[in-house]
Design a protein that fits this description.
By secondary structure, this protein is an alpha/beta fold. It has two domains: 28-443, ANL, N-terminal domain (Rossmann fold, 3-Layer(aba) Sandwich); 459-560, ANL, C-terminal domain (GMP Synthetase, Chain A, domain 3, 2-Layer Sandwich), CATH 3.30.300. The two termini are 35 Å apart. Strand 22 and strand 23 form a beta hairpin. A nine-stranded mixed sheet has the order 2-1-11-10-12-13-14-15-16, sandwiched between helices. The structure holds ligand 6R9. Ligand 6R9 is lined by residues 214, 259-260, 332-335, 354-359, 379, 438-440, 452, 455, 547. The site of ligand 6R9 has 20 residues, from helix 11, strand 14, strand 20 and strand 21.
Length: 572
């Protein structure tokens, strides 16, 4: 769908002056000069993120502003260096080193971040897991990765089937008792005893750093493997997409169990030497606005699901919070509905900048930049150094306005280097020579903006018309009664597929046939007759992943009575 709606570019505080110029002249190598490894050839992302700033005299700058309802802590870069060095020594004492997998299954606390950095510092590969994972999800990931150590808490330990995990030798308990004879160590005791004098393990750019498990629609979750070289993309996108500057206070709301919580909750801010806000505990609109206000957050990276929840909470909690420091807001994870973009402008006078990428791509590839006009509903344009295109299944590039496979020219620094122990799965992404196939469908408009349409397998074909579920969902959430919507194609003998919408209503609205009819008409008149859902079903809640994505494949499976596949990443 074409739009003429434009939101003007920002006029202050840019690292990137003109998108077109930067895109034309960009060289990845320029970014490398920021790092010590440009001179030495020796790499460690944790050194570049933390230690480098201490060496360059920025050690007393606040690195981590942590809070949850029970606890508030501040750490400088020097203190984060010291804590992560100590954790490196804890691992070394256990004999853990290069290439081994250390998994972290913890609530979001400072100890999670120290463990993560310390793991990298000994050259081991970190595997962060969502705190909410149940036993099956934990087992699958620890079995597949053959993790040798796990950092967790006594509360979460009941979900770790350690007797079934022969590779797992050491469990480090944060806030727990040691039982060293059986492989249990106390985090606090070990950290107290550890020296803060530490020699970092220098590795190669192509050595492993991180594994994120991500679910496909079928089969077990895949271990997406990233190497230290990815930091180049985290650094550059931090500069140009997040627009980070040295005095910023930055908050990425994502948990490190999701790739956004590592790439942009750890690397991008710290590689740029910027103060990073971490908020533990549960989501509530009041809490989030207060987190922005109390910390004086200037740059904020979140997700559509959160923005929609904030939108649903109305303006009252915003009035209670001083958001005057906020200057740059971004979103990732799902399509950002135009309605949400308009709300952002109205509610706190900020343009919300959409960005597109995937666990597999390791970093932002398409985005809206501060210096660029926003077309609400578009993901923006390719990052400098990235060539994106819409191609057909044979690899032919499609002209503007045609829907097809969103593909990226290989390689780029943060591209995954393996699917752990699954070569065949890895190769599927590269089945068209020279391209990475994302599995998303999209089109590009005449101005070079990309528009997300859905996952390839979500695109609906109704009476010969291809309809992206996102367009319909976006129109649906513009209706005042609709809080969230998930749209699927339901097989139909006449039309191939019909559009079915699952809708969660906002507080104060009652489900009724009249309301269904009203909503249907609303889409028909606002979008297109063929895009109006023929069927509507009201639900209390929609099935979502922990990163907030509506799980259309689960809606479809429910509808068709099919197996739902891997549900380990679904919210409770
Ligand atoms: C970072 C992350 C990747 C999938 C991706 C796409 C969807 C992400 C989006 C978006 C529309 C955006 N997605 N960003 N869809 N607009 N701006 O989300 O990684 O969890 O691996 O998900 O998320 O479908 O293919 P991951």
């Amino acid at each position: 769908m074409k739009t003429t709606e434009l939101i003007e570019a920002m006029t202050t505080g840019h690292n990137m002056e003109s998108y077109e110029q930067t895109y034309a002249s960009f060289q990845w190598e320029e970014g490398e000069k920021a790092f010590s490894w440009y001179k030495t050839g020796k790499v460690n992302a944790a050194h570049e993120a933390i230690d480098r700033h201490v060496e360059s005299g920025r050690g007393e700058h606040p690195a981590l502003l942590y809070s949850d309802p029970d606890r508030t802590n501040q750490y400088t870069f020097r203190e984060v260096k010291e804590q992560s060095d100590k954790f490196g020594n804890v691992l070394r004492k256990l004999g853990i080193g290069k290439g081994e997998r250390v998994f972290i299954f913890m609530p979001r606390t400072p100890e999670l971040y120290f463990s993560f950095l310390g793991t990298l510092k000994v050259g081991a590969i970190a595997g962060p897991l969502f705190e909410a994972f149940m036993e099956g999800a934990v087992r699958d990931r620890l079995v597949d990765s053959e993790a040798i150590a796990l950092v967790t808490t006594p509360d979460l330990l009941s979900r770790v089937p350690h007797h079934e995990l022969p590779a797992l030798k050491h469990i480090i308990l944060v806030g727990g008792e040691a039982d060293e004879a059986h492989g249990f160590y106390s985090f606090e005791k070990e950290m107290d005893a550890a020296s803060s004098s530490f020699e970092i393990e220098w590795v190669d750019r192509e050595d492993g750093m991180l594994i994120h498990y991500t679910s496909g629609s079928t089969g077990k979750p895949k271990g997406v493997y990233h190497v230290h070289n990815a930091m180049l993309q985290h650094y550059q996108t931090g500069k140009w997409v997040l627009d980070l500057q040295s005095e910023d206070i930055y908050w990425c709301t994502a948990d490190p169990g999701w790739v956004t919580g590592t790439a942009y909750g750890i690397f991008a801010p710290w590689l740029n030497g910027v103060t990073n806000v971490i908020r533990g505990g549960r989501f509530s609109p009041e809490d989030w606005y207060q987190t922005l206000a109390k910390n004086g957050v200037t740059v904020w990276y979140s997700a559509p699901t959160a923005f929609r929840m904030l939108m649903g909470a109305g303006e009252e909690p915003i009035k209670q919070a001083d958001l005057s420091k906020l200057r740059h807001v971004l979103s990732v994870g799902e399509p950002l509905n135009p309605e949400v973009v308009r709300w952002g402008l109205k509610a706190f006078n900020q343009r919300i900048h959409d960005s597109w990428w995937m666990t597999e791509t390791g970093g932002i590839l398409i985005s809206n930049y501060p210096t660029m006009e926003i077309k609400p509903g578009s993901m923006g344009k390719p990052f400098p150094g990235i060539q994106a295109a819409i191609i057909d299944d044979e690899g032919r590039e499609l002209p503007p306005m045609q829907m097809g496979n969103l593909a990226i020219r290989t390689p780029w620094p943060s591209l995954m280097q393996k699917i752990w122990k699954n070569k065949a799965k890895y190769e599927e992404y590269f089945r068209v020579e020279g391209w990475y196939i994302s599995g998303d469908s999209a089109y590009r408009d005449e101005d070079g903006y990309f528009w997300f349409q859905g996952r390839i397998d979500d695109v609906i074909n109704t009476s010969g018309e291809r309809v992206g579920p996102f367009e319909v969902e976006s129109k649906l959430v513009e209706h005042p009664a609709v809080a969230e919507a998930g749209v699927i194609g339901k097989p139909d003998p006449m039309r191939g597929e019909i559009i079915k919408a699952f809708i969660a209503l906002r507080k104060g609205y009652e489900a009724s046939d009249e309301l269904k009819e009203e909503i249907r008409l609303f889409v028909k008149e606002g979008l297109a007759a063929h895009a109006a859902p023929r069927e509507i079903e009201f639900k209390d809640k929609l099935p979502k992943t922990r990163s907030g994505k509506i799980m259309r494949r689960v809606l479809k499976a429910w509808e068709l009575d099919l197996p739902t596949g891997d549900l380990s990443t679904m919210e409770d």
